[in-house]
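step 4 of 6: structure.
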Amino acid sequence: MKFILDVVLLLPLLVLFSLESLVKLFIPKKKKSVSGEIVLITGAGHGIGRQTAYEFAKLKSKLVLWDINKVKADVGDVSILINNAGVVYTSDLFATQDPQIEKTFEVNVLAHFWTTKAFLPAMMENNHGHIVTVASAAGHTVVPFLLAYCSSKFAAVGFHRALTDELAALERTGVKTTCLCPNFINTGFIKNPSTSLGPTLEPEEVVNKLMNGILTEEKMIFVPSSIRLLTLVERIFPERFLMLLKQKVNIKFDAVIGYKAKKQ
Amino acid sequence: MKFILDVVLLLPLLVLFSLESLVKLFIPKKKKSVSGEIVLITGAGHGIGRQTAYEFAKLKSKLVLWDINKVKADVGDVSILINNAGVVYTSDLFATQDPQIEKTFEVNVLAHFWTTKAFLPAMMENNHGHIVTVASAAGHTVVPFLLAYCSSKFAAVGFHRALTDELAALERTGVKTTCLCPNFINTGFIKNPSTSLGPTLEPEEVVNKLMNGILTEEKMIFVPSSIRLLTLVERIFPERFLMLLKQKVNIKFDAVIGYKAKKQ
């Protein structure tokens, strides 16, 4: 009863904060400087990680680049580009990739847990830092035939959100968090993906949004931003309608064809 | 463009299906029979698993009971109760529990993956079965100081949702899915939990809701059902308001006190 009264008393603030959020949409956000900051990127050898390394190099950050795979992390061309911008280290974090469920979790979630666990205490002590979790639209909504992938990306989103809340509860607001949730990206992870929502994203577009989100300390970045609306719609609309909507969204990729062929 | 037109053409169906959902709220759902069905319960030695075993026994299902821990899974009293109802097996699935992140994931998610992976093919072949995922309210919304737990429960929710979509895509609608998402339950997992949302749940209440949800083939069960509203509110209201709301919800448990004491 007291709880309901408490919430009713908060309602004027809801109006105020909603207006504030609306106004903020039209004010360009100030970007923070990352010059001289140490930036550790896992999976830096390819795709989003590699592109993000370039961007931080341009901003004169000190880079620490890690990747699963030594061959892919052999950052010859990257190091030439960023030679004057910072310091480049490379190191192996894992042996190799594996299609097994456990490996999907290891690569997508546990590696990020371990890395965070290693660096968070120092960030918290200095009340300074920024932890970026690379999740996916598939961490909010699901795609058939990517069961372990979706589940591990849901875990990544949960990790980001719990970490954000924990830092707030411990009043370490100097340690920022950002979670990247893009739709299909053209990085070779999934073969020939397509949806009616729009063309497959190019890494450059996603990294632009990511960099902007990090520098303006945005908590959750959806690319395209319409994904945010989709996750809301999913919680409101009736199931039968959502099933029709999914047919229209029509997510396809070659892995599905292979899987179906195997099953039939 | 074609996609937007497609969606606009679907809008009359949105109204229709929404009305249908509303009407269905007031029609009592038919419960299916589980007499003679094989019911495998992991974590059957304690808490929700144990109580659920009792309920299925009463409904004359054939039980297969597994638990992490041999001591806890020594189902002396359960077997007496259900002796005439079905068959009881016990077996060890894991060595022991461990507070490490990996173990949290192993126990909460990977075990469920492996079990599903083992039994799903037969279910799909017969187009008959039901997979129940025990997640948590913490699989939708987050709680500070339960980082690995939240993340693993997010993964469980993602697993359930992706599995549901995959079964629909493969037209195996005879294989049902249910996901249980309760608030804090008084099972000793968390010491002295409390929130302003209401008293800590008793296992009996949660199992009643779970059994009802399974037998009526509900996909997502929130206990209390107000959690569903909370997950919606989280996606709409501005962040600053949500932070105040969380203060009022005031989730507390003894682990927090211990953690804070250690940090300071």
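step 5 of 6: annotate
 - The first helix of chain A runs from residue 2 to 24.
 - Chain A is about 50% helix and 10% strand.
step 6 of 6: archive
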